[in-house]
Design goal:
Helix content is 31%, strand content 27%. The protein is elongated and about 70 Å long. The protein is built from 6 helices and 9 strands, in the order H-H-H-H-H-E-E-E-E-E-E-E-E-E-H. It has 201 residues and is of the alpha+beta class. A 6-stranded antiparallel beta sheet has the order 1-2-3-9-4-7. Strands 6-5-8 form a 3-stranded antiparallel beta sheet, with no helix packed on it. Strand 1 and strand 2 form a beta hairpin.
């Protein structure tokens, strides 16, 4: 058996903590997880407490019993925790891509204009969007309907429904979460020269 380095010791401790955290998060007792993983309760307790050596076959079994994978159980990729946004000053936006799902984006946008009066300037494209108003009051035009969204209220809608968003009574800030199709739809719209106020890119 190879001597334990500081790095391997840190991974060992991390995996043990992760096993316990996953068990607790899923509401499993030691006995229930032991049954699921075909281990004795005392063996599982010693694994969690660092009193028993971690064996690869046991980790595979425990990962399966905890509805995860071995890779996720031993993952140490924490270097890229902090990310900076892409800033679009012309549209008053900041955008972040989610590393876990690059198809999803988070956008923060400051709105200063009301939604367009002309229905022809509303957008429709594949995808789905979710947004929350951080400050002020937003107006969401969705098809023939008009929704007033106050600070801390959220809206979620399919983007195949013609839509536009603007502000009421002064500037407002929104934070939006939307899928790849929705982002592409807004990127195409932003490139067409239109000055319609829309949901975030």
């Amino acid at each position: 058996m190879l001597p334990m380095t500081q790095e391997s010791g840190e991974l060992d401790s991390l995996v043990r903590k992760r096993i316990r955290a996953l068990r607790v998060a899923q509401g499993l007792s030691l006995e229930e997880l032991a049954t699921r993983s075909h281990l004795s309760q005392s063996s599982l307790s010693r694994i969690e407490n660092g009193q028993r050596r971690l064996a690869l076959d046991q980790l595979v079994t425990l990962a399966r019993a905890l509805d995860t994978t071995l890779d996720q159980l031993v993952d140490t990729a924490t270097d890229d925790v902090i990310t900076s946004p892409t800033v679009d000053s012309a549209h008053g936006r900041m955008r972040w891509t989610l590393k876990a799902d690059p198809g999803m984006s988070v956008v923060r946008q400051r709105l200063t204009a009301p939604p367009p009066d002309n229905p022809a300037r509303m957008r429709a494209h594949p995808g789905r969007e979710w947004l929350v108003v951080l400050s002020g009051t937003a107006i969401l035009m969705l098809g023939q309907r008009r929704f007033r969204i106050e600070t801390n209220q959220a809206a979620e809608f399919p983007t195949m429904m013609p839509h536009a968003i603007g502000t009421e009574g002064g500037p407002c800030e929104i934070l939006g979460l939307f899928d790849h199709d929705a982002r592409r739809g807004h990127q195409r719209d932003d490139g067409d020269g239109s000055d319609a106020q829309g949901a975030p890119e």
